[in-house]
Amino acid sequence: MKGGTQVSVADIAAPTISGTVWAELVAELPTGVVLQDEGGEVLAANERAAELLGLEREDLLAGVRPEGWLACDDSGASLPDRTELGRQVLRTGTQLTVPMVIMRNGRPASRLWATYHPAAHRGRPALMVMLQPVATDASHSTGLVDPLTGLPGRALLLDRLDQSLTRSRTMGTLTSLLLIDVHQLASVNSRYGFETGDQLLKSLATRLRDGLRADHTVARYGGDEFAVIAEHPRGTGETIATRVHELAKIPLVVNQHTLQARFQLSWVTSDGQVGVLSMLDSAEQRLRAAAPAAVPVQRKRR
Question: Which of 125, 135, 169, 179 is an S-S bond match for 272, by CB 3.0 to 4.6 Å?
Fold first, then answer.
């Protein structure tokens, strides 16, 4: 997030289907690879990507989809608009993994993980999409659980937010999404080491998970960011935000250091009439506009 700074993790130098770099490094990979521009237009793709999507590569490149072919999420809902999804990935500068089901004539033909990476093509923002079949063992599927904190990762966060919004839309409830950005983690890493910084995130994750209701979802949203999804019958997310603030501002004892960090907090509430990425976008905009919570930084050895 960081004020919307774009971080490019790949710079593809003018790839073409017949180009040497593309042919040698990508074409024969066992993983499906698709390069898209920021508007969702496919610029290049390998054979494996077309195979996983159940398409001819020429059709994939031309944007042609055969009759009866449909890509949706694992609930059967339409995938987010490609342009909106691209903006989300490029704005945050972090990868995003979403579940994808390929339907043929109303029946599921394959299930995939699609991981979107921010990239650049000829100096323009682009997306590198990596396609992999969903593993039969869920514990080996990418993007489900954050390995450091044990919290749901971005893929599960998106799925649970989508389900919550669906329930709000159909049952008349409300869904609130909260984003928490922990500040000065780099200072903790610099002064006490990365192990202490990691333990700080793990301790905060545990506190949020244990301090909120069991039906609330606490997820790792980014490197130093957490997210909370809460459903409620009325009102706004202010009550939940207050509770998160109370939990986050309590000093943590980590590796014999007492740490109390600054953080920013934002929340948005919806009746389910907006999409997942639109809700995330609204929460991110509010987070960037918010001032850090008035919590002093105290780092004291015991």
Answer: 169
Residue 163: CA count within 13 A, CB half-sphere: 13
233: phi then psi, degrees, rounded to nearest 5: -75, -25
Q: Are 235 and 130 in contact (CB under 8 A)?
A: no
How many Å separate Cα 1 from the centre of its chain? 11
Domains and CATH numbers, the chain: 2-139 (3.30.450.20), 154-301 (3.30.70.270)
Find residue 96's DSSP bridge partners. Answer: 116
- Pairwise CA distance, residues 33 & 16, whole Å: 13
- Work out the burial of residue 79: count CB atoms within 10 Å of its CB; fewer than 13 is exposed, 13-18 middle, 19 or more buried: middle
Report yes or no: 35 and 43 within 8 Å, Cβ to Cβ: yes
Give exposure, 269-281, as e/b (b: 16+ Cβ within 10 Å): bbebebbbbbbbb
CA–CA dist 14, 21 (Å, integer): 9
How many CA atoms lie within 13 Å of 147's alpha carbon, on the beta-carbon side? Answer: 5
pTM (predicted TM-score):
0.58
R_g over Cα of the chain: 21
Classify the C-alpha dihedral 108-110-113-119 as positive or negative.
Answer: negative
User: Helix crossing, 185-192 with 194-211: angle to 10°?
Assistant: 130
Q: What is the DSSP string of 92-117?
A: HTS-EEEEEEEEETTEEEEEEEEEEE
Identity at 81, one-letter amino acid code:
D
- Please classify residue 71 by burial: count the beta carbons closer than 10 Å to its beta carbon, then call 0-12 exposed, 13-18 middle and 19+ buried: middle
